[in-house]
Amino acid sequence: MGEKNVLQKNAVGFWGVVFYAVSVIFPAGAFAITGVAAMTFAGATAPLAFLVGGITLFLAIIAVYIFSQKVSNAGGYYKYVEAATKNKYVGKSVGLWNLFWVVGDMIAASIIVGWFTWVGLSSLLNYTLPFIWVVALSLVVPILYLFVGYFGIKVAAKAAITIGALQIIFFLLLAFAFMAKTPYNSGSYFNIANSTGGLSGFFLAVVVGAFLAYGGYGSVVSLGEEAKMSKKTLKKAIVTALLIMVAFDTIVVYSIVAAAGPGLSTASGSFAPGLYLTQQYFGVGLALLAFTFVLVAQVFSPVIFGNSGARVMFALARDGLLPKSLSQVHKKYKSPHVATLWLFGIVVVGVLATMLPLVAIFGESAGLFDSWVIWGISITIFTLMYHIAVNTSLPFYVKRVKERFSWLVHVIAPGLASLIMLVAIYYSLVGLTSPLSLAYIMVPAWVVIGLALIYWRRSKVKAVVFPTRRGA
What we know:
This protein is 74% helix and 0% strand. The longest helix is centred in the N-terminal third of the chain and has 38 residues, at 88-125. The protein is built from 18 helices and no strands. The chain is mainly alpha-helical. The protein has a single domain, classed as Amino acid/polyamine transporter I.
């Protein structure tokens, strides 16, 4: 492999990888974004949605944990599946699902910056931000990503540690303050029977709340070529990051629901219940500080996450599926700079093509909210799909590398995670109304486009076969 196709080795240490995942998961999101989505569809059982989502991913993490010890590659998930199946159609399909998730997440996160600014200023200061400024703010994310992604992974890792730690400290303190002040602390929020949207609403909350939030933990698998001692670092960092964030998100979402009590529908009606309740309990000053924290964190989460997307694109190009130019590495910064530039352009087009028509049809409030929820549903479906693919391929890989086989570890636990994910996919897609029903088109369309692309490039696409030695 030529030097121009090699990323910088040993660029990120353990805590850099942990907080890379934490920052992508976006701690402030439970307070202001994904928590809001969960409350919208499941009401007071939103904390349970985050807990169920977290437990499911701990079952799914078994496969990632095992694969990350054997396969260190910028392709991440799709390289795991490819190592097990040795099939380029299956492996590259998973790669394209992963790429859709990354691109879609950046588009959704960019839109959220504009939407949350519009909602926050409207809720706290009764000021309506002109739509042109909403659009401009939404484009801040891809512009910042372009600079951070171009200058290499070290810059992203250092920013992630600082921003991730500050979010956790601030919003945990605020959550404990809510729980200390409210008279509505209760275990009823963990009873699925209390879901205001029934099972469909609850699992939609799991999808666009918990799974959408926690999906960021897997962003670090694309750092396999750049993490220090990656075969040991990645598996420990993934578990550590997910442990931190499942506990954190469940506590924060619980504190908001408990603080609202019987007034949850009123708080949710503000589109920013965390900000609304902070203002009610502690005044507009602290609410504005929380708003600022969320906005800064929301900008940097996709900025950092975009590095993973560029690396998946880079790996697919290196394997021949995408144009070879996308596999180039910057001579000085060792970043996949061409893939970074292309990802920037795609995200800008995606943001504008989503926001402009939906706002024109449904107005700013509903149009902006629906814009990111449509992407949130679609990308989370793909997140679950490639996790199911990784879970399913695990026993085949273990057999292939002649490791000791365990039905519980390699089949039953990952299989249970996949089953819960399939249930979540089914219930979250049942009865979607316009414009959220666009997910019915987006998901199958990308699957078909992916298969067509692999077939078209079949003579150039290669499936990399990893070592089969025990302990290799």
